[in-house]
Amino acid sequence: MPPNLPLLLTMGDAAGIGPECIVRAFVEGAAANSVVIGDVGVLRRAAALRPGLPVPIARIEVPADVAQVPPGCLPVIEPADLPAALADLPWGRIDARCGAAAAQCIAAAVDLVQHGQGAAIVTAPLHKEALAAAGVDFPGHTEMLQALAARAVAGGTLPPVRMMLANEELRVVLVTIHLALRRAIEAVTFDAVLQTLRIAHDSAARWGQPCPRIGVAGLNPHAGEGGLFGDEELRIIGPAVQAARAEGIDASGPHAPDTVFMRARAVVGHPGEFDLVVAMTHDHGLIPVKYLGVEHGVNVTLGLPFVRTSPDHGTAFDIAGHGRADASSLKAALGMARALVQGRATPSRGGT
User: Fold this and answer.
1) Residue 267 belongs to what domain range?
2) What is the pLDDT of residue 143?
3) Is the pTM for the entire model greater than 0.85?
4) Is residue 184 situated within a structural domain?
């Protein structure tokens, strides 16, 4: 990869806090050598929320043009055929045009990064209902990025991907993500758990941690208590852990899901027993990370052929347009993306 390629930062939902967070991150120096993929008018509207700190928006055609952008200007690439007048739509409301625009920006960013014009993708929050209203057949970023990445693969095979959420104290990789809980439990299979362990192990090696200690959370209370509260640990999760260990992966468990996150948490004077925790379902794994503070959390998609990170929050429609959005999580996502591209950091400890 050529040195000094810019990060590609997608706009997210135009009616949410993503554009404002982008402007704030830029003003606060966290978005250096980054290019926004989005609507120029939307970014100008977000910049106007900070009247004391004017931020000129510079429209460019390709990422390499960032080198010619005057200091203090936020560079934006506007994909062709975005819905018209996005900046005139009301803040904080679900709108199909915002969903369509968010999807177009993601597709444009993936195309650029796959053609070697960007170092990584950092995605501002989108709204899943707006995506659905636009007819986008993906429930979120992870599934959309997976499908877009497959287009560059012979035969269009979907790369196996997993979501990791990380902050300074804890990082969690999920076996299942955006599924109804009943369906998610059905999706916890031997192959799915083993594949998750392989992806987590291989991803850690790429960011400079060749043999991470992986703690595997059970699905049932007390990890099933020997089959008393469910047998998924005996039939599925435990055998997958053993198969991973046979491949040289330092995995252990299944551990009781109500304590494994405390055991893995890294704080001053206590590094934690595990470098990663693998959790079976979305809320099982993400509640502990989010409880520690969404302002520093980062979402990382593991398994893609490029680096992708995202802040650990949504569109926050309730405060959109009020000038009160906190860009801390987006700044952490930008820092982590740079670190992962350079292969110089473990993504949990500060995200930078």
Assistant:
1) 168-292
2) 87
3) yes
4) yes
